[in-house]
Design a protein that fits this description.
203 residues; alpha+beta; OB fold (Dihydrolipoamide Acetyltransferase, E2P); eight-stranded antiparallel β-sheet; four-stranded mixed β-sheet; 5 helices
């Protein structure tokens, strides 16, 4: 169903930039589980507000782009090491924020609600996935698959973001899986009407 244009909420710019940078950093924080050596699981911990806050206007104000579209391809995971290969030890992953495992996603944008993009293809990357016997958990808790329709809140990486931004400068603040009039988020589902009300769409 057609959606109306999103109006960017009038929020304090400093707060928005701080939230954006904190969320960008969430993909670089890891916790090593007991018994891990060169294999195992690493959990990523968000360092900003909850991944799905009650007030979604905070996410919108920290996002450069809000789009709806269909996942065309979840691309092979990529390490941000110099040679593109997995590090030989987990200490490297834990202590070096520039070493990340990223999942690139190719999205066919059908509706643009915020930002200077046009319908068409765009790529963003998100932290986490699986590489061999190593699992890095995404803070989003939703596994994207080809053919999924999503509503994505995306931001552009800061200039000093590092190697992961070369995969794509776009990263998600938050995304929902769209199921008709219901949006399934990482913590709970909401209706389109709830989203429209929170973001003052059409005003």
């Amino acid at each position: 169903m057609p959606r109306e244009t999103l109006a960017r909420p009038n929020r304090n710019l400093a707060l928005s930039l701080t939230l954006s940078l904190l969320i960008a950093g969430a993909g670089t924080v890891f916790v090593l589980h007991p018994g891990d050596a060169v294999s195992g699981e690493i959990a990523q911990e968000p360092r900003a507000y909850g991944i799905q806050p009650q007030d979604l206007s905070l996410v919108a104000s920290a996002s450069d782009i809000i789009v709806e579209g269909v996942v065309r391809k979840v691309e092979p995971v990529r390490w941000t090491t110099a040679d593109g290969k997995r590090p030989t030890d987990l200490e490297t992953v834990i202590r070096r924020p520039d070493v990340q495992l990223r999942t690139p996603v190719l999205l066919k944008v059908e509706e643009v609600y915020q930002g200077d993009v046009k319908p068409g293809m765009l790529r963003f990357s998100m932290p986490g996935s699986r590489s061999d016997d190593l699992q890095l958990h995404s803070i989003f808790g939703i596994e994207l698959k080809d053919g999924m329709r999503i509503l994505a809140f995306l931001s552009r990486a800061p200039q000093d973001a590092g190697a992961w931004a070369k995969i794509s400068p776009l990263y998600p603040q938050l995304f929902f899986v769209v199921d008709e009039d219901t949006l399934h988020g990482p913590e709970r589902s909401i209706s389109w009407n709830e989203l429209l009300d929170q973001l003052s769409i059409g005003e």
